[in-house]
Design a protein that fits this description.
single chain, alpha/beta, eight-stranded parallel barrel, 49% helix
Length: 281
């Protein structure tokens, strides 16, 4: 695996202590020379300032950064201002998402929103900024939890690509077959953009189950049972998780995945350990 094949995601810290911890984490992971760092964007833009601050700090350190940008609950004018600001500050990469619904945001609010889907956001970014931004969108090998069917989900992905997306990052998953099937399904519909495989280190069983329930990621039964059997043995969970995710990464890259996107959860150690194993393999 080469550095240009992978990227690392952070979430914007909410406290001064978190900001300092992320700086330490980022400095450590920067030694791996990833292609870029991405920074998430909270529901309804709730972390907008934190996302911007983190992205500009990363760029100031000499690295490429890609802010997430979501459209649900956002107006055209507010998004236009964000795009102009990022462009003025030298940001040239975006992760364009529909985004999570803000707390208390109902179906009527969504229906009346200026944007309802990510493909509309991609179209808007292209209309406002031309080819300035490299736009990445989300892909869901195991189906978006709110999609009507796998077929509809792939069609949604196709719409985002046709709207102007350059590439995609998947939701994290632990089933390589789901990824390869998704790629094949998209290719049959004429989509050939790079789809980077998202992977998340396994360090905490209860946290993993909670995240996976929310985003619809399936934990293979044998992995789930093995993790559960370790109870509170954190070291065994991490060692087993390192093996599982490294083997997943190896299979994805050997099978033709153009790269890996690490969901770091603002921790350096797990991502670094997986990366170093992959480099040696």
């Amino acid at each position: 695996m080469k550095p240009h094949n992978f990227s690392i995601e952070f979430f914007p810290p909410k406290t001064a202590e978190g900001t300092e911890k992320l700086r330490v984490t980022r400095a450590r992971l920067a030694e791996l020379q990833p292609k870029y760092f991405s920074v998430t964007f909270g529901a309804g833009g709730s972390t907008q300032q934190g996302t911007r601050d983190t992205v500009l700090e990363i760029i100031g350190e000499g690295f490429e950064a890609a802010p997430h940008l979501s459209c649900i609950g956002s107006s055209r004018e507010s998004l236009k201002a964000i795009l102009q600001d990022y462009k003025a500050n030298g940001v040239s990469r975006l992760v364009a998402l529909r985004g999570d619904l803000p707390s208390g945001y109902g179906a009527m609010d969504q229906a009346s929103s200026e944007f309802r889907y990510a493909n509309e956001l991609v179209e808007f970014v292209r209309a406002e900024t031309g080819d300035w931004f490299n736009i990445e969108v989300a892909a869901y090998p195991e189906m978006h939890p709110q999609a009507k069917s796998p077929q509809d989900d792939v069609q949604n992905f196709v719409r985002k690509v046709k709207a102007g997306a350059n590439s995609a990052i998947t939701q994290y998953f632990y089933n390589a077959d789901a990824y390869f099937r998704f790629i094949d399904d998209a290719a049959r519909l004429g989509v050939q953009v790079p789809v980077i495989a998202g992977i998340m280190p396994i360090t905490n069983y209860s946290q993993l189950m909670r995240f996976s329930d929310m985003c619809g990621t399936e934990i293979p039964r044998w992995v789930r049972l093995k993790l559960a059997s370790y109870g509170d043995d954190v070291e065994s969970i991490r060692a087993f998780g390192l093996d599982v995710v490294t083997q997943l990464g190896e299979r994805l890259l050997q099978g033709g995945a153009p790269g890996l996107h690490f969901y770091s959860l603002n921790q350096a150690g797990p991502t670094e350990a997986i990366w170093r194993r992959l480099v040696k393999s």
